[in-house]
Write the structure tokens for this entry.
Amino acid sequence: TNPTAAKGLVKNVSFSAIDQIADGKKPGDDAVVDKPDSTNPTAGKVVIHKRLQDIVAKEDKESLNTFVFSDNEFTKPQGDIFTEGQYFLGVSMLVYMYSHLRETCRMGHTRCEMEDIDVHSLQSTYKRGTPKRYLKGAKSAGSIIRVVIDELDTADGGDEDNDIVGEENKEYEKSITEQFRIWIEESRIDQMDDETKEMIAEMKRKVARHRWRRAISAVRLSYRIAGKPPRWEEPVCAPGCENQNRFVDMNEMVSQAMRKQPKYFREGSVMHNLIESGIEVVWFSDMSQNDVVYGICVCREERKVTVVFRGTVNAHNWKMNLKFDTNEYRNPVKQNYPDREDELSLHSGFAMYLLRKRKDSGINKLQEIFDKIDEIGREMAPDGNYKLCITGHSLGGALATLTGFYAAARSRFAHLDTIYVWTFAAPRVGTVAFIKAWQHLEKTGRIRHARFSATRDIVPLVPFCNFERDDLQFYKHVGVRIQLHPVGRLTKWRLKRHLDVTYPLHFTWMAEIQRAFMNNILANLTTLGGITNNHKLTEYQKRLHFAITYRKALGSGDLFSDRRRNRIKTLDEYYHIRANITGASIAQEILEQSKVTAENAVKQRPQYAKRLFTALLMVTWGFLLATLSANTFGTPKPSLHMFVGPMSHIAVGVWHICPLVTFLFIV
């Protein structure tokens, strides 16, 4: 299920074996290298299993492309692309809520104190110093949501004793409270209309009838073959009461009732998924609302570190969003790849948030985030074997894209597996040179990106160029795009056929025209209220929830004519289908990079000999010129007695080989 783990195979397998495996052949006896690679601390965990040898022996390329090469005991099977997207969307919503809660708490408009809800942050660092254990002060998602609900209840009750006569209305505080209320209430009610419910119920009835017909046909066929009626099993009674004179086990009924007791949030809602996920907020950076606001969350069970960026909330964020011009930055990808450029053109506003250095500390925001990721990850997993995910909505999605790119290109995180980036309503951040570097990291298995966008949301469609007369460049999207359509009959027809998933694989003029037509901003224009509503997190959650519910109602393929589309696939599988990136292709790409690196090392070796030869030639020419000048102009000949000790022998040798070296130089 994780074809990107094939990059670890190169550490313990000879290059010839990689060539044979990529071609679907059985590797030779020299495939496994007994000596582990000392430069890779996790190389000892990656070996060729007996199952892989069986797969290669059968020449099963499909199984090879989806084979898991890693023996990580914490590796959890990857969920489908909608389920994972819903999870990271909930994490983004949690950071929005926590950021607003902290802001209102600092303004003194909440009943709780800042110390009660604070995790390790810049504010706490100034008070208590740099923490030694980040996980000790973590706050779970359930505790944060509980505080939000309590604050909403107190806001509904009012506080007339503390009201000040003539005080102006706190519109900003009211807007924050209203946004909280919408998120909480939408997680408690059903988000589908009556028509959709009836349609899904009808689909379930069709699936049930289809399955019953198939079961009845199987019973009839077995009866005709056997020639006698089938034997039915004995009726099954409650556990523990098989030999007792009662029909119901009361203890079993009570335990079932406790398991089925009503919950505050609806099953499958964002808040319910957040509480059940076990995610915790460990670090939060919100010293200034005009700076990058982000949080670092962990899931200890899965050893997963998630960096979450908050989106646009104030005028300064919009000012940085509208900086459509580009700035040149050094390419962090050191490997050679087709059409590589030394400098990348990035969105000046987004890049300035992360790459501008502070005058007090001398580091930029990106270095600060990397330091926190490494410290928290190694505290949770001392061996450094943890997973890194980055997510964000709107402006947060753009910052998540840049952070994931630099994290995958840096050698600091080379010991990690694939870095996953999940963005929602993210605008474009780079030009053609950026997408070339990004796709190289994808081909080597370093990064994966799922980019969710909604129909009628114009934010993912901008900016389209940098508006510079001297150097006009067009922005490009990266990663796999998952288009979410509004709830309606056309969306139901699309979901029944296939999901709207695309990838920029080709860059021909025909492909560019097709993408320009699909991402046409004029075709997605709507009213001002429609633009705002289609960009909200709640709208993305509603469309994701409908897509998941509708596909599940189809019965896992019972009503699909095409068996290849009978289930929602994972992100890695969509990279296999849309981008043609498989385990064998990753191994082949890494092999080519290793060969290029080895060839460059070989090419650099003669340079040292050339420099030594040049230095020797210069010394020889010096002695030759001195000799010629002595013979021609009668100047005294340089005495060899000026060299004492061992240097005299070297000087005499150079003096005698002077004519020979000169002749070779002329030739």
Observations:
- The first helix runs from residue 15 to 22.
